[in-house]
Design goal:
single chain, about 725 residues, alpha+beta, four-stranded antiparallel sheet
Length: about 725
């Protein structure tokens, strides 16, 4: 009995006899491609190929992918020899235009040609009052060998790279020159003839064999079957799977680091994984005299310039470093010696820069900031640090949750940008803030100031740490809001396609910090206060302030949308704080609302209060201001009294101080459905008695008002 295999087509799991299925292997072999380019290309293949296979009707069990700096491959496992076959019925022209003098007209001939059938295969059927031609056709069922070349051509040249190049006299472009292609379907190795119909693919060479490691295994080899591709390459000194190389590198790094610990760097590990085909780790030693340099300088020289890994002893860098190599182990000694020589030269440069920097204390460098432009029209970095003082002072006036001495604030602002004038930061610009913090420590500056110099840049990127100290948080908030104001006022505001100063990201981090420290302040008033700090460089109009305010609120809205909160609810929540817009309060409210939204009663309760708001709108009654209590002596029903009790509870809980207050408020709403339903079932609002009608409208307004302070119900009507 033949074995049975599952295979996939368009999301359905089907069955096929094993003898109808074969594995298909494709390898793209190139000159060495930059690590980030090649890793991205593999990810794009993984995304694109299943979609292309589905469109072409390929039937298969699974796919495998892999790659190195010099090759990418995919294998389609248990691929059916033919594409999926489907039967369809197509409709043709009306019968009355199909024949003339008992001969087929051009309309009918065109239909026959399109359907690929003869006249005898046409069926005529009535549809309404007319008779139409129909044909039953079969699509698909093509040999996969006829569709795969075009699919692969589309796959290769759909991959995007930051830059591409042309080579030889070919009309194609790629990240680096493509040396050859390799195709194998089962035991059949394809030749050039298979791809002659493809305009781009046919310009490339098809190889009858596979190439191993370019140094350690130069002789090409053949495969008996695509299944053995990875193992055969391994014998020829190539680990073609990314995970295999990464695991080998990581294991050897930790082993070779002993007795010290490894200085972990995930970004560097990812990079060296894509710089090698047969990785091995070698140990080097640099002169101990360089250990006097700051650790971040040593690690930057090693990691950024040389792709070396450092080792640590009790958190401090040691003289031992690790090199991930792709070369011949027979030349291990020469490789180590060469890398030690290169690193020594690098560290010598670093030591020179450090010694030059330390010839004067950090505070003496502050005046040098006058020669560094911050942003055209917004002065120098010296002007910026002076503005940071003023913005920090503005922040402290708006209920900033930490008490900080003015002299510490001024000292931190003076020194925050001073390291931009140093040789080390000029060489390693990513160390700005860190170098300043280290130099400040060496100059015996207050600990709070040293930490703030480093923290005021944080976070710089996704996944980065946030500032932790009160002074560091203050400077970080000042720095980011200054960048936002300067960006907007200088014409560098974000557009749909560009954000030259990364203001979206900085604003998002600014909001994150505010929410983290639970800083409550009125956004509009605060922005107006900050705007006064720019009078010496530009005039800030009310329109500018509104634009910046709306930009900040827009970023906050983006955060909530990612949490799955409905856009209308977000808009209603923001609009309810018109004129105040306390970011932390908005966060607490909408986070609690997001939890409340999961309650099955949410939509029905919301609908009831929207109904109340609609009635009030018809009578032109505003609930924006606090409402007077209705006269309980005019209540005629128990339902009015119960609604009044509910309104009192909501009024009582509407003085929001923290997240728990919002949660308690929404819990009362969640429990109010029966009360509100009974009121509308039993009480008519628009009665003839003028006093009763007005009192019932007042009751609705009194109940709706606290909800309106949380959600602008007019945005939901």
């Amino acid at each position: 009995m033949p074995s049975i295999h599952f295979f996939v087509f368009s999301g359905y799991l089907l069955l096929k006899n094993a003898d109808m299925l074969k594995d298909f292997l494709f390898e793209l072999y190139t000159e060495e491609i930059p690590a980030s380019y090649q890793k991205s290309a593999l990810q794009q293949w993984k995304r694109l190929l299943p979609d292309l296979a589905k469109k072409k009707g390929l039937q298969y069990q699974s796919m495998d992918f892999g790659g190195t700096p010099r090759r990418l491959y995919f294998r389609i496992n248990h691929l059916d020899e033919k594409t999926k076959e489907e039967k369809q019925e197509i409709k043709g022209p009306p019968k009355n235009i199909c024949f003339e003098n008992n001969q087929p007209t051009k309309a009918l001939e065109g239909f026959l040609k399109k359907a690929g059938i003869s006249l005898e295969q046409v069926e005529f059927r009535n549809i309404g009052k007319s008779e139409y031609a129909f044909a039953k056709i079969t699509i698909g069922g093509e040999p996969v060998e006829t569709v795969l070349p075009e699919l692969i051509e589309t796959l290769i040249f759909s991959v995007s790279f930051p830059k591409t190049m042309r080579w030889s006299n070919l009309e194609i472009a790629y990240a680096r020159p493509i040396i050859h292609l390799y195709f194998q379907f089962g035991k059949d190795v394809w030749t050039q003839e298979k791809i002659e119909s493809c305009k781009k693919l046919s310009q490339l060479k098809v190889s009858p064999s596979i190439t191993g490691h370019f140094i350690l295994s130069k002789k090409p080899f053949s495969l008996a079957d695509p299944k053995g591709y990875e193992e055969k390459l391994k014998k020829h000194h190539v680990l073609v799977r990314e995970d295999d190389r990464k695991q080998k590198i990581e294991k050897e790094l930790h082993e070779k680091a002993k007795p010290y610990s490894l200085s972990e760097n995930q970004r560097l590990l990812d990079e060296v994984t894509w710089l090698t085909e047969n990785p091995s780790v070698l140990v080097g030693i640099f002169p101990k005299e360089f250990l006097r340099l700051p650790d971040i300088v040593i690690l930057s020289e090693m990691e950024l310039h040389q792709r070396y890994f450092g080792t640590l002893l009790e958190g401090k860098v040691t003289e031992k470093f690790l090199v991930v190599t792709n070369g011949d182990p027979a030349y291990e000694k020469n490789i180590i010696t060469g890398n030690e020589r290169v690193l020594k030269a690098r560290l010598s440069d670093g030591a020179f820069f450090y010694d030059e920097d330390r010839k004067k204390p950090l505070i003496d460098r502050v005046d040098d900031l006058k020669s560094i432009v911050f942003l055209e029209g917004f002065g120098s970095m010296y002007d910026k640090k002076e503005r940071l003082k003023k913005i920090a002072a503005t922040i402290t006036k708006f209920s900033y949750p930490f008490k900080i001495a003015d002299d510490l604030i001024h000292r931190a602002c003076d020194l925050a940008k001073a390291d931009l004038t140093t040789a080390l930061v000029y060489e390693f610009d990513h160390l700005q803030g860190e170098i300043g913090s280290i130099y400040a420590q060496e100059d015996k500056e207050p600990e709070e100031v040293c930490k703030a110099i480093y923290e005021h840049y944080l976070p710089r990127r996704q996944g980065d740490a946030y500032p932790k100290t009160p002074l560091g948080i203050l400077l970080s908030l000042s720095e980011k809001i200054d960048n936002v104001f300067a960006g907007f006022l200088s014409g560098n505001k974000p557009t749909s396609s560009q954000d030259p100063l990364a203001l979206r990201r900085q604003t998002l981090y600014w909001i994150d910090i505010i929410i983290e420290i639970q800083w409550q302040f009125a956004l509009q008033d605060f922005l107006e206060g900050v705007a006064t700090r720019y009078h010496n460089v530009t005039q800030v109009s009310s329109k500018d302030i509104i634009e910046i305010r709306d930009f900040i609120l827009g970023r906050l809205q983006t955060v909530f949308e990612k949490q799955g909160i409905d856009k209308k609810l977000i808009a209603a929540g923001i609009a309810s704080e018109e004129g105040k817009w306390k970011l932390t309060s908005l966060w607490q409210k909408l986070s609690a609302l997001n939890d409340f939204k999961k309650d099955d009663r949410f939509q029905r309760i919301l609908a009831s209060f929207k109904r109340m708001a609609g009635i009030l709108k018809e009578h032109k009654i505003s609930v924006a201001q606090k409402m007077e209590k209705p006269d309980s002596n005019l209540f005629e029903t128990q339902e009015e009294k119960l609604l009044m009790e509910l309104a009192e509870k909501l009024q009582e809980k509407s003085s929001f101080q923290n997240a728990k207050d919002y949660q308690a408020f929404f819990q009362i709403l969640a429990d109010s459905k029966e009360t509100v339903d009974q009121f509308f079932d039993s009480v008519m609002v628009n009665v003839e008695d003028d006093a009763i009608r007005k009192n019932r409208l007042a009751l609705l307004a009194y109940a709706v008002h606290p909800v309106q302070q949380v959600l602008d119900l007019s945005r939901l009507l």
